[in-house]
Write a structure and sequence with these properties.
The complex is a heterodimer of chains A (321) and B (903).
Chain A: E1 14-23, E2 31-36, E3 57-60, H1 71-75, E4 81-82, E5 92-93, H2 95-100, H3 105-109, E6 115-118, E7 120-122, H4 124-138, E8 143-148, H5 155-167, E9 171-176, H6 182-191, E10 194-198, H7 204-211, H8 216-227, E11 233-240, H9 248-261, E12 265-270, H10 276-282, H11 296-308, E13 312-315
Parallel strand pairs in A: 2-8, 8-9, 9-10, 10-11, 11-12, 12-13
Antiparallel strand pairs in A: 1-2, 1-7, 3-6, 4-5
Chain B: H1 5-11, E1 19-20, H2 39-50, E2 54-55, H3 58-68, H4 75-89, E3 110-111, H5 128-135, H6 140-144, E4 161-164, E5 168-171, H7 175-184, H8 190-198, H9 204-212, H10 220-223, E6 226-230, H11 234-255, H12 268-300, H13 304-320, H14 328-345, E7 348-352, H15 356-359, H16 361-369, H17 375-390, H18 398-404, E8 412-416, H19 428-439, E9 446-451, H20 457-471, E10 475-478, H21 479-490, H22 497-500, E11 504-506, E12 510-512, E13 514-521, E14 524-531, E15 538-544, H23 545-553, H24 576-609, H25 613-617, H26 621-624, E16 639-644, H27 646-662, H28 668-676, H29 684-687, H30 705-713, H31 722-739, E17 751-753, H32 760-765, H33 795-803, E18 817-820, H34 827-843, E19 848-853, H35 856-864, E20 873-875, E21 880-882, H36 888-896, E22 899-900
Parallel strand pairs in B: 1-22, 2-3, 6-7, 8-9, 9-10, 15-16, 16-17, 18-19, 18-22
Antiparallel strand pairs in B: 4-5, 10-19, 11-12, 13-14, 20-21
Classes of the chains: A alpha/beta (321), B alpha/beta (903).
Amino acid sequence: MVPLEGPLSGSPEGLIFDIQAHSVHDGPGCRTTVFLSGCPLRCSWCANPEGLLPHPRLMVRASRCRADAYPCADACPHGAVRVDPAAPLPPSFERALCATCVEHGCVSACAHGALEISGRWISLDELMKVLDRDRDYWGPQGGITFSGGEPLSQPEFLLVALDACHRSYIHTVIETSAYADRDLLQEVALRVDWLFVDLKHMDPTTHRRGTGVSNERILANLEEIARSRIEAHVVVRVPVVPGFNDSAENLGAAARFLADLRLRYVNLLPFHRMAASKYAQLGQEYAHEDAPPPTGDEMEHHRRLFVDAGLECYVGAETPF
Amino acid sequence: MPRKLTDILAEADAQLEYRSMGTPPEEPTPREIKKTPSPRAQRLRDLYFDALSSATSEFPYWYTRAYMRLDNEIPVVRRALALESAFRHLTPTIFPGELLVMGKTHHLRGSFPMPWLSEGYYMAAEDELYQEALARGSASADEVSSFGMGGGNVTKSFGPVVSIAGKFGIRKEEVPMMLRTARDWEGKSVDDVGHKYEQMTPGYEIKESLMRSVTCMFDSGYTLPQGREVINYYYPLQFGFDALISLAEAKKRDVAGRADGDGLTGMNRLYNYEAAVHVLRGVQAWTLNYAKEARRLEAIEAERKQRDEYREIAECLEWIARHPPRTFREALQLCWAVHVAVLNEDAISGLSPGRLGQVLWPWYEQDLEAGRIDEEKALELLECLRVKFTCLDCFASMGVVGGVLSGNTFNNLSLGGLDRSGAPASNRLEELILEASIRCATTQPTLTLLYDDKLPESFLLKAMECIKTGTGYPAIMNNRTAIEFLMGQYGPEGMDLEEARAIAIGGCLETSPCSWMPLSLNGRSYSIPGGSGQPTSVGVHFLSLPKILELVLFDGVDQRTGLRVFPSHGRSLDRHEEVFDQVKLYFAEAVEVLSLANNNQHDVWRKSNAAVFNSLLKPDCLDSGHLINELGYRYNATHNVETCGTINLVNSLAALKFLVYDSSSFSLDEIRKALGENFGFKTADEVGSFSLAAQEKRGSSTKHDRIHLACLAAPKYGNDDPFVDRILKEWEDWFCAECRAYESLNARPYYACQISVSTHAPMGAVTMATPDGRLAGTTFADASMSAYAGTDRNGPYALFASATCWDHSQSQNSQLNMKIHPSAIHGRKGTKKLLELTRAYMRKGGFHIQYNVVDSRILKDAQEHPEAYRDLLVRVAGFTQYWVEIGKPIQDEIIARTEYEGV
């Protein structure tokens, strides 16, 4: 039900690049996950590269492009489509121009469905309608998960959405990098039932190399979360990226850090290459094209480091939640 | 120092008061959800809190005066003219701040007697009329029933106010008029005429003994002949009174002088339409009198805002007295006027507004679209409606209104369910009704959620939030089970699945047949639900099952009065099967004689006193020209057999089987002796409490301790124990099938109804100790599926498993009341847990569940300091009532119920 208190009209809108129903790996039960666009980090292994920027992104599916004509170029008022009959399909797009485009005439012009816009503005009303539909199917455990991108990069929308969910008895989970303003993170933590916080590397320099930002703010925020007595269930997530953060030294340091803070629940997420095609569609390089995911044995080895530090550590989707 | 039962149990390392799943927090926990009404509704509710239940003789005076002048007029027209006169003469009063106006009488709260139904019971106890009523058993229940002493009940005379019927105050100067009017009906009332003829039914002497021993209480034929049904607002809403009068006039021309193939009742149609015209004119004039009063107040009101409000009231009434409503407010006001008019036509408890949020949806939707209303305005109106409903009182005997109903009037509003096409029927207006019921908590209308798995989660959670206010509403009824029951009961009368989906609850939890009506508003078409059946809970009421077991064990003699109720059965009772069989035989004999007498009473009622206004509202009376008495309603298979004390019977049969027949620990004579001596305890009256835990031993003897503890420790219902549950299932299967073997006056089969309302107190009060360890005079287990207090010890799922060991759709209902500590369902997670608990029971086929969310310690404090708890609401059994207006036996029983600390 739409809550009785708190008007929905006039609320800020949110930019999202996906809503996934029956999402089973983003918190307890069967859930609906909403992906908010925009992220202050640039992790080289990012699984959702289409959600990094705070505006809609053009995705080009090369396999669907046909060479009979170039209606996309005709439809583009910005001259961003560079047609070179000699070059292989698809035509190249001047991405800087695309970023400023609001019409996206090229998308509807393409009869083959090779072009797609990732990211659209959604009103709170519309979001609540989706949730009101989905919640009939969640079961007792389910709820909404705000993911991204970095959901905290759209604080106005996020906070009113969390409040609306709270009033409607909807279980809320957030997945955050914790690279955010301390007070904002507290505000959010007070409003959610579950909090997934990423911890990517313990060393500031290496962290900057892999993600584009230092980890100081993230570590401070984790300390703050541990100190404050929020009711939310906190799970720290460590993406295990081979060659970046999977050394025993780093993972051991992370385990000690979390054990000291008494942040008990850890979820190790093995790196995967499922995002590779998305990089291609965005016209971006993918740094991990050939990197193999960690093996099961390796993950078990990493898990032991955390268990030995007295933590409850789970790998991938094999969690009790 | 007398030994208390609790001491004896403590010595034996046993306990009685039971808190399931943990202990409550140290401090008493208040209810979590508490909101306040709009200032307007709050002022009106405060007026109600300060008002006393008042009776007047205005309506009966004018009714009687017109009626007595019309000797030899056709009965239905005579009654209609009497009703018209009474409606035309009612004094209209409007209270400052009201948006919705009109009431039963000129008093803020109260009612009036209808001596044409029964005149003896409200006379003074020393009056010969009353003594005569007592002799025939019709007042026996009055003697053992009581009202709560507080709130608006006038249980004692004071100053210029005389207390009558144990509940109402009437001004001294009105008493001679009231008595004079009553005397006019002596020998002529439905009660008196019915009594003459019911004596001719075979086995009548058994019927009298059943009433005198309170094996049965409540003759519905003359006490509350209507109600426990869903009203239908459709015709006035769609056509308006002017058009309905024209329609009836046109129909008169069509049918006058024509039998149209029906030599028996064909000619009656003319008189029925004539009667309809008169009653409609009376109701129209009554409405216009309120409009005049509003105009009068407008003319003298100095304050501008209030003056404008009077004008708006007048405009609204002037319109709806003649035309179909245009706005939500007009539609709501019209529904209310129609509702009160039906209540003034007959003695009624349980006239349910049905699915009001769906009935009014067309106006609300169109007002909203046109910007004529917003949600806050709608909420204010809905809150005012709650206060209006709460001001209703029902005037009947103390045995009925106190002993059965605890003063409640059971205007049950249903929410949810499915629409005609099978889609969820809940809407935003129903959410506002829930919100208004949270903000403006009052007893009426009580709410029922027609639970269906298809209903939106958000809607269901809103209903759970409402339950957490502690008011106990909405109760939850299983929509699918109800549809199955309706199809079985009304299929032979032509009900199909679409129609069955129109279901709503009449009275406290009577599954009632309803229909979809085609409504058109500003060119848009809607299908709105409304009642289309006769009163669905008249018949054999209520049969005390533990009392029947007592009669079996003592060869047909009532142990309290020494009265022989049934002929001696002469059986040795040396096998469990023999005891069970004799219970069934006595029960069947009781239903046989009571159904015959009941058929006769209702036949007398319908011959001289048939409903005209209520009839013309229901499909298909206006079409066919036949009223309720000529089976003009679409569904007429509406008579039932109601029982009380099922679980004490089942536990007692289990205890006998366990202790006497299986293990031979005691002989039946030993048990009988212990029961006869009440296990060595004082009577509940002597102790002054009606709950088991408070009982005290007589003297310091330990006599009967061993046998009593064994009886208490025997297997009990509510623990998923097949030993007991098999007995319950055997009883239910037999009872539900047996009822259908009896024929109602409508020549349709009776059916089973299993709600205790408040009868478990007065019926417990007259029943000796039972083999399950219950002591004499103490209250029975409430409802029909609730465990006996403190005996369900394996948690809620075990209780649910026991309750659903039989198919509930064989019965019109079942009833399970659960007391939950507020801390067990605290917070948002608690609300969701409450829904999961409810859903679990519904999925297993449970028909009904309702919750009392309260800390027992607060109730105990309220018993000691009633003055501090004027607005405390509790759920009893199918209804919500102010704590201070409930009799002590029921208060004790609620306190004693097992308290669930976790779910």
